[in-house]
Amino acid sequence: MMPKLLLQAAAAAAVADRRWYGSGGRRGYLPLRHPPHVAPGRFTACLLAVAAVTTTFALALTLHRPDLSAASPRGVGGGGGAGYAVVINTWKRYDLLRRSVAHYSGCGGAGAVHVVWSEPEEPTEELRGSVLNCSGGGAGVRFVINAEDSLNNRFRPIQGLTTDAVFSVDDDLIVPCSTLRFAFAVWQSAPSTMVGFVPRMHWLADPGSNAKEYRYGSWWSVWWTGTYSMVLSKASFFHRKYLDLYTNHMLPSIRDYVNENRNCEDIAMSFLVANVTGSPPIWVQGRIFEIGSSGISSLKGHDLQRSKCLNTFSAMYGHMPLVATTVKAVDSRTSWFW
């Protein structure tokens, strides 16, 4: 059955399994998610190191339409091999890496799994062996070694990449294979855009002012409004040509800013794709599971830093390229809401 796109308004943002919460007089709904079942077998040792935990999923919004960039990826959707390449960004979380590789290498559509390595020391032979052992002979797994530590490394072109579709994911996020397969089908219907599971929004701080100052809208902004303008690269599909555009054609000042602030490489990619296409991304409804407990987003002042990124990047572009939308892709076979 072909996947279907459903338009959903703000009031329909959370229609799946939910649990009621309340404190301090404030109440609302949070999605209730349970980690996917892992059948016992040869990978049990790889999975015991990390306990599966529940995760909360998100949404987002945007305004504006940009000028199209001349560096548009022509021939999108053709020339690459079937399936998609999984690109896992990792940093000193080896148990999470083993679990991620074990999972994604077993997904039917994954042609290869590439581990983006940016640590000062190359992975030991012991780690390489344990990661490859976790792959279980599914998709081929290899390490992409980078000479310097940079968040920009996750978007460097990968030599020998044979698929047009790239699924970019953090080492602490698990997307069930069936959900990933549906998202890939959505991407195939719109291969020039970003298709992902973690939506976010940007807002004008003062819509009545001539000064265009923007604020970063987290999951709660999307949940409340049903509108978003970004899908984060921590779990999203995009065309492999954006790797070249990001690394070799995007303004170097943006990559420099990412290096100096150790943040916002995902926002930079969202700006790039929106500027090329003049279109919004596509948010796919689906369960994703967070198996880690810390990261950049957990640091104090994270949203403020993200707002600074929005304003800095829009100044560098000379306009705000992000485009807002309320469209959400839903697999009608698993959703009762029409």
From TrEMBL:
Key words of the record: Disulfide bond, Transferase
GO cellular component, one term: membrane
Glycosyl transferase domain residues: 84-331
Disulfide bond as UniProt keyword: yes
Keyword Cell membrane: no
Pfam families per record: Glyco_transf_64
InterPro entries xref list: GT64, GT64_dom, Nucleotide-diphossugar_trans
Domain of life: Eukaryota
GO molecular function: glycosyltransferase activity
PANTHER family: GLYCOSYLINOSITOL PHOSPHORYLCERAMIDE MANNOSYL TRANSFERASE 1
Family: Belongs to the glycosyltransferase 64 family.
Protein name, per record: Glycosyl transferase 64 domain-containing protein
Species of the source: Oryza glumipatula
